[in-house]
Design goal:
This protein has about 130 residues and is α/β, with parallel strands linked by helices. The chain has one domain. A 6-stranded mixed beta sheet has the order 1-2-3-4-5-6, covered by helices on one side. α1 packs parallel to α2.
Amino acid sequence: MAFELDMTEKTPQVLFDTDKGEFSFTGILMPEDAMRFFKPLFEYVEVYFKNPAATTTLTIDLEYFNTAASRLIFQFMKRFSDLSSDKTAVKIQWKYEEDDPDMEEAGEEFSLLFTNVEFEMITVKRPRVFEIMG
């Protein structure tokens, strides 16, 4: 079963594939009402963890997030960390652009808070706008 939200100017693409145990956020996260954005996502995760896949991966691949979203990203990762059990091994992947020290630092700070799950920092290279446009 899958859950998907399309990317907008202020919200990321959200892909939850419960069959594979893969959850991801990709893009920019600065919703007008962060709690309203995250509420159904938390509810979806609660249902998933009643019967999770053997491994569960949460991938955060954001180019930017605001302060309100930061708190909820933390709470979301914490929920995954708290629900890690003998039923499922939870892994968190934090992706950041190779020349974005702010996102790298944010990931490193989050990784210090979640020591009971595997936390992987992944450097990515994205094409620049001028590279895309030629």
